[in-house]
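Long-time lurker, first post. I've been practising inverse folding by hand and with some scripts of my own, and I keep getting stuck on stretches where the structure tokens seem ambiguous. Below is the full token string for one chain I'm working on. Before anyone asks, I'm not after the true native sequence, just a reasonable design that respects the backbone. If someone could post their per-position residues I'd love to compare against what I wrote down in my notebook.
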């Protein structure tokens, strides 16, 4: 018995030694795994920090290329260096920061490429022969603040007055906010310029049957009088006169309106169907009627929505807003080719309003096709070639009543709540790096097609509800245009 106890004790003693050895090995493995995880986690964190650094530095540097007291590469390098330092990256034995200035398609030097290569020391992996990681990040940003020619094409259909609370007032404030954000100045010939146009649907003349008729009849016999024309007016060509632009928007400021604009501007207003009195008394019709029933809820009566007017107001057979003759900058030798932008806002879709009495052959589907074709042609510029200095970048804004309704418009009941994306809770599906067609209505898809959104994204389409802050959105878009953007 005594011998057995001695043998058992020796065996147990040997087992305890084996367990201890195994524990030491397992502990070493655990430390190695945890150490590797820590090193890899720190590497991922540092990589993200590097990307944030080059993004911020390239944006700041590209802006310094074209604005400031002494714009140019030296100012850009100083600005970018400052931002890189804020994130902890300066050229030294373990870090290389470099800057280049690739020319843009306009021929102007308004892009900056920032790259960084950094040797990041490891802690635990150094014990197994990996003393450091080599990390790299880069970004290219482009800014347009030096030569930026912007057209604002503004929907002033009746729905801007009738479908929401003070929508027209919101639009005026939004335009003022945009102007202030872009901040044109007549003292800076190389600064931004803004042109402005307002548009709606189709205008027709009227002929009343008697001087006592209170409502212009649309049926059964229409009192439309041909010819009918597009409701669109250029308020001003490209200008850096900030005071005049603000006066056009909201009737304030010290500027004066261009000649002949009293019907449509100072401030922005909608066109209404009216006719002179037949008896000289000054009495004019109060609205329209169909089969003797007046549109008492829609008086005065406005033109409907014809989206092609938003493009043709600035680009048609006889007028091109960005031409040199109309204030556009298109001469590299004389200062550069301006980057050309159109910002379009609408609160409706193509509609036959009122449908009774409209000119023969009108089709909203034809208008849908026309506006996309006009927008695509405008994006390419007069030369019809992508990637050249005359290209125009288009932003579209959808400003819609909610809740969304798929009901079609009729002659007596227009449907203006046609955006599913605006009806979605903020943040809305657009703008985004991804375009999701299942979240879009036909109107959303149409406005997205008009925009310059990159393929597969909706980064140039901005749908919002009429209860949201339109001026803030316009300030956001102005900042996106004027401050530059990351290209890669």
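-- Answer (accepted) --
I ran through it position by position. Result:
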């Amino acid at each position: 018995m005594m011998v057995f106890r001695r043998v058992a004790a020796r065996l147990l003693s040997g087992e305890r030694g084996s367990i201890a050895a195994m524990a030491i090995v397992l502990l070493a493995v655990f430390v190695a795994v945890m150490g590797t995880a820590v090193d890899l986690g720190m590497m991922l964190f540092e990589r993200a920090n590097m990307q944030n650094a080059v993004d911020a530095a390239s944006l700041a540097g590209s802006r310094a290329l074209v604005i400031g007291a002494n714009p140019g590469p030296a100012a850009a390098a100083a600005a970018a260096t400052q931002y890189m330092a804020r994130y902890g990256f300066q050229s030294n034995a373990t870090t290389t920061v470099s800057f280049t200035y690739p020319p843009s398609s306009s021929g102007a030097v308004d892009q900056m490429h920032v790259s960084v290569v950094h040797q990041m020391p490891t802690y635990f992996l150094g014990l197994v022969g990996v003393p450091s990681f080599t990390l790299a990040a880069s970004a290219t940003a482009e800014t347009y603040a030096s030569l930026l020619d912007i057209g604002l094409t503004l929907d002033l259909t009746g729905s801007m007055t009738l479908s929401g609370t003070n929508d027209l007032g919101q639009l005026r404030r939004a335009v003022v906010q945009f102007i202030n954000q872009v901040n044109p100045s007549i003292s800076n010939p190389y600064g931004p310029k803004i042109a402005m146009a307002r548009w709606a649907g189709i205008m027709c003349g009227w002929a009343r049957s008697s001087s006592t008729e209170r409502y212009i009849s649309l049926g059964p016999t229409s009192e439309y009088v041909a010819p009918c024309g597009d409701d669109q007016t250029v308020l001003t060509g490209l200008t850096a006169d900030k005071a005049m632009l603000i006066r056009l928007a909201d009737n304030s400021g010290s500027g004066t309106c261009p000649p002949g604009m009293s019907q449509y501007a100072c401030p922005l207003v909608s066109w209404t169907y009216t006719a002179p009195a037949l008896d000289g008394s000054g009495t004019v019709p109060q609205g329209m009627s169909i089969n003797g029933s007046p549109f008492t809820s829609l008086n005065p009566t406005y033109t409907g929505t014809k989206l092609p007017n938003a493009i043709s107001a600035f680009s048609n057979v006889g007028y091109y807003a960005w031409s040199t003759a109309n204030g556009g900058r298109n001469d590299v030798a004389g200062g550069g080719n301006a980057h050309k932008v159109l910002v379009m806002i609408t609160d409706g879709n193509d509609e036959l309003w009122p449908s009774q009495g409209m000119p023969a052959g009108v089709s909203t589907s034809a208008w849908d096709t026309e506006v996309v074709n006009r927008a695509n042609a405008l994006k390419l510029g007069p030369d019809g070639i992508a990637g050249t200095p005359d290209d125009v970048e288009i932003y579209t804004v959808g400003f819609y009543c909610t809740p969304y309704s798929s009901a079609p418009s009729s002659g007596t009941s227009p449907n203006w709540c046609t955006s599913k994306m605006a009806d979605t809770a903020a943040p809305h599906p657009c703008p985004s790096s991804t375009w999701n067609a299942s979240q879009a209505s036909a109107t959303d898809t149409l406005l997205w097609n008009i925009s310059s959104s990159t393929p597969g994204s909706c980064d140039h389409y901005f749908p919002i509800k009429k209860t949201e802050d339109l001026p803030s959105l316009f300030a956001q878009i102005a900042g996106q245009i004027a401050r530059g953007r990351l290209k890669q």
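A couple of notes from the structure itself: Residues 235 and 261 are 7 Å apart (CA to CA). The chain has two domains: 2-142, 148-486. Happy to go over any region you disagree with.
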